[in-house]
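User: Some background: our group keeps a shared notebook of sequences we're curious about, and every so often someone picks one and asks for a predicted structure to add to the entry. Today it's my turn. The entry only has the sequence so far, pasted here. Could you supply the structure so I can complete it?
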Amino acid sequence: MPLIPEEPQIHESAQGPRVSPATGRTAPTPRPVPGPRPAAPSRPGRPGPVRPMPPVQRTPRDTAVAKPGSAAPAAPAAAPTPQLQLIPASAEGALDAAEEAVDLLLDSGRAPGEVLVITTGEPHPWAAHELSFGEAAYWAQHDAGDDVFYADASALGRAASRPVVVVAVNGGPDAAVAAALPLARGRAGTLLIVCGEPQRINSALGAGV
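Assistant: Of course. Here's the predicted structure to add to the notebook entry:
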């Protein structure tokens, strides 16, 4: 008789281990979540929606590439720096040196209306003569742009740009010279000529010339 109960026990044990591993497997089932993941990819067989996602990411990349292309034309906006020439001369001879520079410019083919002459000390005789008829007539000649125009450094704020600007450092305080030269450079389109003492000009501009 003991053999009979042993047999059912063996059968139960055989069935029991199957149930117990199942129970034991039930605990790991949450762990093998990666196992269900493969089943999920089978569902992403629908990944029709997933495919549109990458193109959405590609389009911004394309637009990003287009943006730098649009920024490229901004570079040519930079204005060219005028060429700088220094003609050594004393304060007394700076005006004569400027007159010689103007003659050479006109002889080389420059149009008179392309030249602006600035004085830091006493005004040019032509400017003093024309101003005797009033500022309105004086600046009317400037606006016409038909001839070389002579002006005091203090008038640089009103003078228009011209291709060539000639500065005669024929006196005036160092502060006025230091303020006039950068303004003259800004008015010169292609060429800036400075006539004066090199040491004074360099010290006024911080040796920037």
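Suggested note for the entry: The two ends are 123 Å apart (CA to CA). The first helix runs from residue 3 to 26.
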